[in-house]
Amino acid sequence: MAEEAKKVEVLTPEPKPGTIDNLTEEQKKTFEEFKALLKEKNEFKEEEHNDYLLLRFLRARNFDLNKTYEMFSNCEKWRKSIKIKDLCINFEFPEEEEVHKLYPRFYHKVDKYGRPIYIEQLGSLDLKKLFNITTEEKMINHHVYEYEKLIHTRFPACSNRAGYHIETSCTIMDLKKVGLFQFAKAFSFIKSSSAIAQDYYPEMLGQMFIINAPMLFTSTWKLITPLLDPVTVKKIKILGGKYESEIFKVIDPENFPKFLGGKCECPECTGGCSRTDPGPWKEEEYTKDVQWPPKYCYIKDEEEKTEEKAEEKAEEKAE
Ligand SMILES: [Zn+2]
After folding, report:
1. Domains in the chain: how many in total?
2. pLDDT band at 4 (very low <50, low <70, confident <90, very high)
3. Ligand 1 center from residue 79 Cα (angstroms)
4. What 3-state DSSP class applies to 119?
5. Are 138 and 271 members of one domain?
6. Residue 293 in domain
7. Distance 275 CA to ligand 1 centre (A)
8. pLDDT for 94-110, tens place per residue?
9. Domain that holds residue 63
10. Which of 21, 128, 256, 318 is deepest in the core (most CB within 10 A)?
11. Is the separation of the CB atoms in 199 and 71 below 8 Å?
């Protein structure tokens, strides 16, 4: 954490059970065992796997060593399969502006706890139109790219500002103008992107507000909640059209876009609230020690070197 950065008064939550400052003796033991196991299997990478990350996986599996290891190694396999390092360095999304018109997703300032606020609006999402502009694969890659940026740039900047480690965000899901038919169609896409969050980026949801939820959604939600993790369900609040007072318990109106009932009006010349991307991650004071893409993206392990050689050989042959 950059020492010279000016700290800002934020609400500091009690350290959550299972986080680094709040571990039981038993959890400490499992944590050490988990690290030792990864080292033994040659899967521990110093630059990539910090304690916060390992603890997120442990919490997601209630400190069950075998289950945590299974989850973690599945995640590592997935990261290899999508070539995460290349993705962080080289991902390009020139269609972003067009995609944004159909499916606005953006970060906008921080909540009272200092956590980044993430807003999604599903009202204009038309998958048919969307996949005329881009592909499902690119949407998923963009989603992953944004997760990596969240971990490596937004969280560290927010932590520098707040003076405590921040690793969760505050999400607003706006269902305004979402018809049930449209929601059903978009559901499979939403399911696949939330599966990525659950399996590969666990324990990063601080809180979620679903706003402008239609009545039918509320009753469907009641039906599906037993299928979801109770800890996650607790973090999600379903609100109808009068959501402001609930939201303002957690977010200052100044930090919430005016078009959603707050007071913020980011300048139109920078794209307004949904395109300006304001927050500590844009402020020099809080980003001195922030590096993007992360250093480890430029480090190749043995397996990657071998693969690269094989690819080069195949290319030579093809020529
Ligand atoms: Zn704004």
Report:
1. 2
2. low
3. 33
4. strand
5. yes
6. no
7. 9
8. 999 999 999 999 999 99
9. 25-81
10. 256
11. yes
Per the document, the length of the chain is 319
| Ligand 1: centre distance to CA 42 (Å) | 46
Name every residue whose Cβ is closer than 8 Å to that of residue 203 and which is 6 or more positions away in sequence: 56, 57, 59, 60, 167, 168
Alpha carbon of 301 to ligand 1 centroid (Å): 42
My answer on whether 72 and 115 are in the same domain is no
CA-CA distances (angstroms) from residue 219 to 183, 216, 223, 224, 308? Answer: 14, 5, 7, 9, 52
Do 140 and 239 fall into the same domain?
Answer: yes
d(CA 118, CA 116): 6
The rounded Å distance from CA 155 to ligand 1 centre is: 19
Question: Would you say residue 311 lies in a domain?
Answer: no
Q: What is the pLDDT of residues 44-81, one digit of tens each?
A: 999 899 999 999 999 999 999 999 999 999 999 999 99
Ligand 1 geometric centre to CA of 178 (Å): 23
| Distance of CA 156 from the midpoint of ligand 1 (Å) | 21
35 and 173 part of one domain: no
Considering the domain architecture, whether residues 51 and 189 belong to the same structural domain is answered as no
Distance from Cα 272 to the centre of ligand 1, integer Å: 6
CATH code of the domain covering residue 101:
3.40.525.10
- Which pLDDT score, from 0 to 100, does residue 31 have? 98
Rounded to the nearest whole angstrom, what is the distance from the C-alpha of residue 281 to the centroid of ligand 1? 14
Q: Ligand 1 mean position to 274 CA, how many Å?
A: 7
d(CA 106, CA 173): 11
